[in-house]
Amino acid sequence: MHPFTYVAVTNQGHAIDALTANPRSAFVAGGTNLLDDMKLGVETPEHLIDVNALALNRIEPLPGGGLRIGALVRNSDLAWDPAVRERYPVLSEALLSGASPQLRNMATTAGNLLQRTRCTYFRDVSYAACNKRRPGSGCAAIDGFNRSHAILGVSDQCIATHPSDMCVAMAALDAVIHIAGSKGERAVALNEFYVAYGEDPARENVLAHGDLITAVDLPALPWAKRSHYFKVRDRASYEFALASAAVALDLENGSIRAARIALGGVGAKPWRAYEAEKALVGKKPGEEAFKAAATAALAGARPRKFNAFKVDLAQRTIVAALLNVMFEKRTEQ
Amino acid sequence: MNTETLIGKPVDRVDGRQKVTGSARYAADFPMKDVVHAVAFQSTIARGRITGIDASHALKRPGVIAVLTHENMPRLYPVSMEHNPGRPGQTFLPMQGDEIFYAGQYVGVVLADTVTQALEAAGLVKVSYREQKPTVHLEDALGQAYEPKKMGRGDKTATGRGDADKALAAAVVKIDQTYTTPIENHNPMEMSATLANWDKDRLTLYDATQWVYGVRAVVSTWLGIEAEKVRVIDPFVGGGFGCKGSMWPHIVVAAVASRHVGRPVKLMLTRSQMFSCIGYRPKTIQRVALGADAQGKLLATIHECTSQTSSWKEEWVESATKQTEMLYSCPNLRTVQRLAPVNANAPTQMRAPGHATGTFALEVAMDELAVATNVDPLELRLRNYAQRDEGENKDFSSKALRECYKQGAERFGWSKRNPAARSMRDGDTLIGWGMGTATYPTNRQESSAKVRLSADGRAVVSTAAHDLGTGTYTTMSQIAAEILGLPIEKVKVELADTVLPQAAVAGGSQTSASVGPPVKGACLKAIAALKERATADASSPLFKKQAREIGVGEGRIFLKDNPAVGETFVELLVRNGGRPVEGKSDQAPSGAAEQLDDAGAKKPNAPFSMHAFGAQFAEVRIDPRVGEIRVSRFVGAFGAGRILNAKTARSQIMGGIVWGISMALHEATIYDSNRGKIVNDNLADYLVPVNADIPEIDCFFVEEKDEHVNPLGVKGIGELGVTGAAAAVANAVFHATGKRLRDLPIRLEQVL
Question: Which residues of B are less than 8 Å from A127 in CB distance?
């Protein structure tokens, strides 16, 4: 691990100033991802600014039925929050399907948004070729062991998967991210927050150095009560998704008025499947409509040697998730 | 007075308190003043030569004391696999030259005041290479496959009886398939670690090992010093599973580094290094061909296994064909083992070497034969039951396998199984039931023990055996307490130190069978000495009595016919000047050492074939929509002779079954095809089951009395539970889905 200095701040302005002052500094909150990547030499900040003491750890109601989630709310607290469980079960289920209880007790909302990929070639610095670590160096994963890699939103420069479960649920819920920076505050829709890989996989989101995520808003969505997160993986717990689906259905008079579908484990970012949602509107809920939607969701998939099965698996995952939510069959994870 | 009450009881671990309070000291835990921390850095290429090493940046970092590489490392002496009493994990020693044989090969070691400094500096050493294209996968090396001269302790690599190929060609029913098992890594909780300290020309090693005497023999040879100058200590081992059963280069690197800097050196492997530096279970490609009549009676068996080894052709064979020689009755049989070299480190023994991989192939093939002949899989095994070992042409010393099948099937409810694939469901969930046979040989090696009974009424048992977390402290305490007639609290067991009497490697499931008899023998000798003292002591109530008239129990020595006539050990010893009595016993399977037991040690050229057996039954549940496979029930029934401790034995067997489930559905070490480097060398990416993957495991022992295996009548249980378990799961997956999967691990995309 590279040597670093450390400071704990108690004031949001001081936090932003401290970060802005040193281009090689980073915020640390739960540390469940950053410290791992520092031990691997993937992240090499010179200076860590501990923001755990900032007053950003509350979940508050928003006018009209939404929720504001502080950036420092721990994953466990968010998952078990009564309002989240009541209004947005998909988010609670997604959180509880991720990591382990110990990690969830530490990991924060904003940290989860910024979780780095688990691509083994990204995490092994002995591979010179990684466009995410060293722009322009190539990608060892494209011709390597890429079973866990993404098939949506990928490019010839990078096929790394966004690993989060929480973000997939938030993508389905149209979450909005609040950011404070040296130039003031702004709000960005989560689905606009992540940038597709394109030519520069090192750039993963719209944050600039000096920005601090302060909160995530979940807009009111009454029919999200009928929502669900379904995750498929190689073992029953403590494992990233091979494919997952966050779904919500708005049913009226036996047909689908609106739907939300987002995918995990298969995308370069938390993957909102708008085409699949459109394909469901006005349809009678059932396996036929769900399969058509699943096909639409994966239309743009670009599989590689070891992850070709994910095209089929992701479609099956969508269908299973929609059937589960339609029949209100939820799995306690 | 009956003292035959302790052996077999579910006695709590005597070291439990030490472990849960953290006072049990593992190798790296021993405090050492001025210790220097060593961190190895490794080759990132799999084949080629080192062309340059620039350690200047590393050497400038604070706390860094030295960097050792092949350029400044002293030359070490080679160790012969045949002629050294220990067993090096690899005959090739890194850091002795510039040639690279595998990714992860040690290039050098950084020595610093703190482990953090050493870790950082290790990342700053710049190594340049001339890289050659490596042979990464066993499949790519099959053209170089060859038959090694021998395997294990001298077993033949090709065996046979009758004419298997002819009988197969003529058989009415034939199964002829290829099965593969992947590379797997051991990953005990405790990483391998060595703490080395020189006092002039004497070396002390605290080393995480399954064999302190083996470490002494190998390290002293590598260093070119007398074995007696080396002391090896390791009272607690945090799991080994075979990777600590051989001696790997980090041990001698720590010793050399300590001499180099003139301070004690601690070298603990990182988790990632545990994948590349201490052996692994090699990949196997196995052909099993079975020929049978229409009723499923075996007429021909062919089992061929090719496993990988290192590119310098370390002759370590994954003996997957071994159990096939004797598991079923079959007149025509042929087995052969081959090796093929790849650019990876040397493979090594991993829990149930050969048998874990071999029973997978054989027992899945048997399931295929059951389907082909429309015979119930359990009935098929009974139709081919081996009454005697047809490979060795010997009777079994004991074999309770029939009872294992019966009791296991009853507990599992096997008779309710619908034989048709995809026929059993719970709602939409597919359910599959599968079974497999477990078997592991009963090994025993020369070991010694000493016991000292002191005037304070306490006994100390000493032997250089090991407790890998398996319960040796507890079982040996039970044996000693029972024989000495003392409460277990009065017995202390000392293990794993080369100043103590020699004991066998804690591998091959042989500790109880090897060390138990000399512990018992030493206790009997101590009792004999005690009786001698009493009968010669005019002040003793037992003065001039005959030894055979005298019994012991509850800390007393007394007349068997009239227990009131006697005295306590303490009274007798204190009156005799407080001198303790001692007994020592050396026992070997040849029976060459003294025999203090009625049962007697194993005779030379033992007339019996000695194995433990078991029956494994698995239930899987599969979501057919997405293919997720979970094991929902498991029953294992085992016949393993006398059980020393019902609790620790059950734990070991249960752990073995977890390994089998893991082998079936989770574990595989993946090498990058281009670089030949391990992709998943960490516990997040290398999958092992979590609690949620493991159902209630119902495992138990059937009654089995074996008067031939050894004076205690015990068989090994450390590895038995793994065998046949992966096959049971794979066969259950077939039953649930109708898909026959012959490549481990089974992943969900294979069942979609």
Answer: 675
User: What pLDDT does B83 receive?
Assistant: 83
pLDDT of residue B297: 98
- What's the pLDDT band for B4 if we cut at 50, 70, 90? low
Per-residue pLDDT, A331: 56
- Mean pLDDT, to the nearest integer, of B250-259? 98
Backbone φ, ψ for residue B576 (5° rounding): -95, 35
Distance from CA of A286 to the nearest CA of B (A): 15
- In the chain, the amino acid numbered B372 is A
* Contact yes or no for A313 and B752 at CB 8 A: yes
pLDDT at site B153 = 64
Which of residues A329 and A227 earns the better pLDDT score? A227
- What is the pLDDT, as a whole number, of residue B595? 33
Q: Which of B468, B467, B518, B529 is nearest to B495 (CA)?
A: B467
Contact A174, A66 (CB under 8 A): no
Structure tokens at A289: 């409509």
With a cut of 60, say whether residue A100 has pLDDT above it. Answer: yes
Give the catalytic positions of B in this structure.
Answer: 719
What angle in degrees, to the nearest 10, is found between the helix axes of B355-373 and B646-665? 70
| Cβ atoms B664, B729 nearer than 8 A | yes
Dist CA B721 CA B106 (whole Å): 35
Burial B637-668 (b: 16+ CB within 10 A, else e): bbbbbbbbbeebbbbbbbbbbbbbbbbbbbbb
Cα–Cα dist B360/B722, whole Å: 10
Average pLDDT rounded to a whole number, residues B581-596: 69
Tell me: pLDDT of A198 over 90: no
Question: Could you give the CA distance from residue A115 to residue B674 in angstroms, rounded to a whole number?
Answer: 28
pTM of the predicted model as reported, rounded to 2 decimal places? 0.97
Q: What distance in Å separates the CA atoms of residue A309 and residue A304, rounded to the nearest whole number?
A: 9
pLDDT at A183: 87
CB contact under 8 A, B630 and A143: no
pLDDT for A197 equals: 77
* Interchain CB distance below 8 Å, B116 and A41: no
- Tell me phi and psi for residue B334, to 5 degrees: -145, 130
The residue ranges of DSSP E strands in B162-221, in sequence order, are 173-181, 193-199, 202-207
Characterize A169-184 residue by residue with b for buried, 16 or more Cβ atoms within 10 angstroms of its Cβ, and e for exposed. Answer: bbbbbbbbbbbbbeee
- Chain B residues in contact with A2 by the CB 8 A cut-off are 120
Question: Per-residue confidence at B591, pLDDT binned at 50, 70, 90?
Answer: very low
CB B619 within 8 A of CB B657: no
Give me the residues of B, 390-419, that contact A with CB < 8 A: none
Q: Which residues are within 8 A (CB) of B153 and not within 5 positions of it... i.e. 6 or more apart?
A: none
The reply to whether A238 touches chain B by the CB within 8 Å rule is yes
The Cα–Cα gap between B722 and B701 comes to 15
Which helix (H) or strand (E) segment holds residue B355: the answer is helix B355-373
Nearest residue in B to A143, CA atom? B674
CA dihedral B90, B92, B95, B101 (to 10 degrees): -100
Name chain B contacts of A234, Cβ cutoff 8 Å: 665-666, 687, 747-748
Distance of CA B151 to the CA centre of its chain: 17
pLDDT per position as a tens digit, B167-186: 999 999 999 999 999 999 99
Q: Are B88 and B247 in contact (CB under 8 A)?
A: yes
Contacts of A146 (CB under 8 A, 6+ apart): A159, A304, A305, A306, A307
Q: Is A37 on the interface with B (CB under 8 A)?
A: no
DSSP string of B479-521, one letter each residue: HHHHHHT--GGGEEEE-SBTTSPP---S-TT-HHHHHHHHHHH
Task: For residue range B191-210, list pLDDT tens digits in order.
Answer: 999 999 999 999 999 999 99
Q: What is the pLDDT of residue B155?
A: 82
**Cβ(B751)–Cβ(B741) under 8 Å?**
yes
